[in-house]
Structure formats: structure tokens, C-alpha cells
Amino acid sequence: MSDSLERASEMDAPLQQLKQKIDAEPAPRSGGSAIGGLSLLLVLLLACALGAGGYWLWPEFQQLQHDTAVTQQNLQRLTEQQQQQLDAASQLQQQIQTEQQQRLTQLEQRLQQQQQQVLTQNQAQMQALRQLVQERDSAPPRHWLLAEVEYLLQLASQKVWLQQDYATAIALLGSADEKLSKLDDPSLLPVRQAIAADSKQLKQINVPDMSQLYIQLQQMRKLSSTLPLKQQQQAEQTVAAPGHQLSQWRETLSYYWQQSWSQLIRVRSAVPEDYFSLSAEQQLMLRTSLQQQLLLAQLAAMQHQSQVFAAALQQASDQLQRYFDADNAEVQQLGSELASLAAVDVALVQASPLTSLAQLQQYQQQLTESSL
């Protein structure tokens, strides 16, 4: 409040000076004095209005200046905070970029290390391969021949145990012995003796040609569908007519009795020939039954079941003799083939283990130890 009074007194000081100057001047004339008084009154009113306006507006002006200063301070503070946030974000971004760069550098280093390791391994493998090739190239022909003989003996053993192909095994053993004979080395004599013993053992095994046997049975099945069956008609039994003599009345009575009742009832013992008058369906059933027995013999031969094979052939032979025409050449040929096949033994024969491969491996082991 004191500040307002001081400001008001400061503003009234010019008015007091102006009033003193007016009082010091001489009084004008009456008309002029009226105008002067009016002017003075207006000036006073204006001064009062200005004073009152200054009195009322000066606090507002100070408050406005104060608010402006506070706003500027807040704005400066916000600017500083924003700048700090920008600096922090920039530092964080720079830190993230640095970490990413470090990780990328580490990954590149690991990748380079792995590539270097793979390259080193490949180079080592290539070097080992080159050395192996050089060793094999510089190896004497003796080693190559022994390797070929070992492969032939291994293959022969597989043929014996896995496929029971004794003929191929004998051929492989002969080829291995031929290669060993080219070396002309007395130290290989035990190996050649083992090969000879294995070959002799396999040659003593009598194994039928299963493929040929299968094909033969297949052809017999096809032939059975065209073989002729027995189609004999039973001849009627007739009784000779008796004479007309009175002493033969018994024969005459018996003759006419048979003639009267033979057309109604015929009683006699059944014979095999009664079944030879067959219909088309019965003929088909007989041929199908014969083919089934031959097919059973095929399957038994492939599975090395000798008992089933012999039983199926015997059943087929019985059916052929009973129901088919024995005078036909094809029937006779099929019967002879069945008889020859019945003597074949289809049982699986197991050979003893081959000793030639083990003998050769023992020789190679001794050769390696002696070279060391």
C-alpha cells in the first residue's frame, strides 16, 4: 500500500508544478479565464483518470511481468529437461549401437574361426587322402592281388551262407586260386590248400537247380489243363437167351424175370470206371485239383520242404493215373516227369564254414607284423 501511495505522489508531482506555474501567471480576462478554467479542469480530470488507471493497472502490470518471468523460467526448465532427455536418448542409442557392433564383431570372429577350423579339417583330410593315394599308387602289385583275392573269398562266403549259391562260390574260389598262382609264392601254399578244400567240400554238395525245377513244374501245370480225361461208358451186361427145351425151364424163368425187372432196378457193386463219365464241371475240378498239387510242389520246393514236396507229387501222380487217359502220350510224359521229380531232394543243405578267408587274413597279419 505504501508503494501505491509513493507512486501516486510521484505521478501528482508534475501536476503540482503545473499548478504553481499557473498561479504565478497573471489572471486572464474573464472569457479567457473561463476557457482556461475549463481546460484546467479537463487536465485535472485527465490527470486523475491517468492516476487512477495507473493505480489500478500497475499491480496487473507487475503480475503480468511476474507471470511472464515464471513462464520463461518454466519454459527454460522444460527446454533443459527436453535437452537432457535428448542427450540421454542419444547416449542410449549410441550405447545400443556400440553393443550391437560388438556383438556383430564377435559373431564375425566366431564365423571366421569356424571357417578356419573347417578349412583346416578339409586340408587335413585332403592331405590324408593324397597320402593314401600315394601309398596305394606306390604299393607293389602283390598287395593289390592279395586285396582282390580277399574280396573274392569274402564274396564266396556270402554266396554260401546268404544265397546257398554253391556253383557261384566254387567259381569265385577258382578265380581266387588262379590269382594266387600268379604270385608264385610258396608262403601262400596254406591259403591255396584251404581254397582247394573249400572247393572240394562245395562240389560234394548235390544241390538241384531250383530255378529249373520251378520252370518244369510251371510247364507241367500248363500241360495239365489240356490233358484228356477218361470218358468210358459202362457197357450193359446182357444175359444169353435160354433154349426152348423143357428141361431148361429154370433158365427160361430166370431170363424172363431179369428182363422184366432189369429196366426198373439194377443192383451191382460200384467200380472205378463208374466215375469216368464226368460232366464239364467235374472235369474242370479234376484239372484244377491236379494244378493245385503241382503248385503246392512248387511252393514246397522254393521253401525247401522235402516232405510236402514229395507228398504233393505223389498226390498229383495218383490223380493222373486214376482220372486221365493213360494211353495218351502227354499223360505218359507227365507221369514220367512226376516220377523223376519225386527222386529230387529239395531239402536245404548247409555247407561247412569256408576256411580259406580266415587263412588269407592270417597270412596278411603275419605279413604286416614282419614288415614292422
Automatic annotation (TrEMBL):
Residues 61-124 form a coiled coil. The chain crosses the membrane at residues 38-58. Keywords: Coiled coil, Membrane, Transmembrane, Transmembrane helix. The keyword Hydrolase does not apply. This is Enzyme of heme biosynthesis. It comes from Rheinheimera aquimaris.
